[in-house]
Amino acid sequence: MNTNGYPVGKRKRKKWAEMETFQHVFQPPFQEIYNKDFHLKGKWKEKFFKNDNPIILELSCGKGEYTIGLSTSSPQRNVIGIDIKGARIWKGAITALNEQLKNVAFIRTRIEQITSFFAKDEIAEIWLTFPDPQIKKRRNKKRLTTARFLNAYREFLSPGGCIHLKTDSKVLYDYTMQLIAYNDLPLIFASENLYEEPNIDPVLSITTHYEKQFLEQYVTIKYLCFQLPIDTVIHEPE
Fold first, then answer.
1. Closest CA to 23 of 81, 96, 83, 76
2. Percent of the chain having pLDDT more than 70?
3. What percent of the chain has pLDDT over 90?
4. CA dist., res. 49 & res. 103, Å (int)
5. d(C-alpha 36, C-alpha 52), whole Å
6. What's the chain's average pLDDT?
7. Interior CA angle at 22 toward 20 and 25, to 5°?
8. Tens digits of per-residue pLDDT, 131-168?
9. Where residue 181 falls among pLDDT bands split at 50, 70, 90?
10. How far out from the chain centre does Cα 69 lie?
11. CB 167 within 8 A of CB 133
């Protein structure tokens, strides 16, 4: 039982059901998007946000803290948070609802299905904020900066669009740096200790619950900003 008196499983189902009533949350069943296009693909600005502002993605958004932070710090941008954990998304979704944020949406899905949701050049930036570094070798292929995922992002990231990686993991940081170098990707900025950098963009100072814990433990925060070639396939380092 939890503090609200619900068994954990029942509480999750309650949140999922509640989110079904939210106009800014999308939870399509797997069979609806597997090898198929989601109905808003290529139409997010026109049909959902109803403006022509750039769209920013936060992948593996967890509770949506960074998604909300991006939306409130830059109201002229539309922000979509994506995660498979519905009970986590619920927190950000409730915040967006209570604060009447019109430039926020959430999608509950696996990142592996990401290309079902967005069309060519539809996304301006991608944020990866403290994704699972997938330390175990057999799970490395699930890192969100592998060549497999980067090639998927290329399908909808606009030319010159940046990927931002913010992490506490040196393993993930070093791996991504190696992949960037191997593929000669345009590296815009790199730091192994973000908060020691002078005059950082205020957007980089948005802190999640877990990041605050890392900082309290004196863990250094790493940051990368890089771009993807539009017409070149990305490969894993040998």
1. 96
2. 95
3. 73
4. 6
5. 25
6. 91
7. 80
8. 988 887 656 788 999 999 999 999 999 999 999 999 99
9. very high
10. 13
11. yes
Give strand pairing partners of 227. 162
- 83, 132, 168, 231: the catalytic one is 132
- Please, what CATH class does the domain formed by 136-238 belong to? alpha beta
Buried b vs exposed e over 108-126: b needs ≥16 C-beta within 10 Å?
A: bbebebbbbbbeeebbbbb
Pairwise CA distance, residues 94 & 103, whole Å: 14
What is the helix (H) or strand (E) element at residue 190, kind and residue range? strand 187-191
d(C-alpha 112, C-alpha 170), whole Å: 24
Domain with CATH 3.40.50.150 in the chain: 1-29+44-117, 136-238
Q: How far apart are CA 164 and CA 204, in angstroms?
A: 10
**Residue 132 is among the residues annotated as catalytic for this protein:** yes
Question: 1-29+44-117 adopts what CATH topology?
Answer: Rossmann fold (3.40.50)
pLDDT in tens, 37-56: 999 999 999 999 999 999 99
At 160, list the tokens.
Answer: 């010159």
* Mean predicted confidence (pLDDT) in 20-48: 93
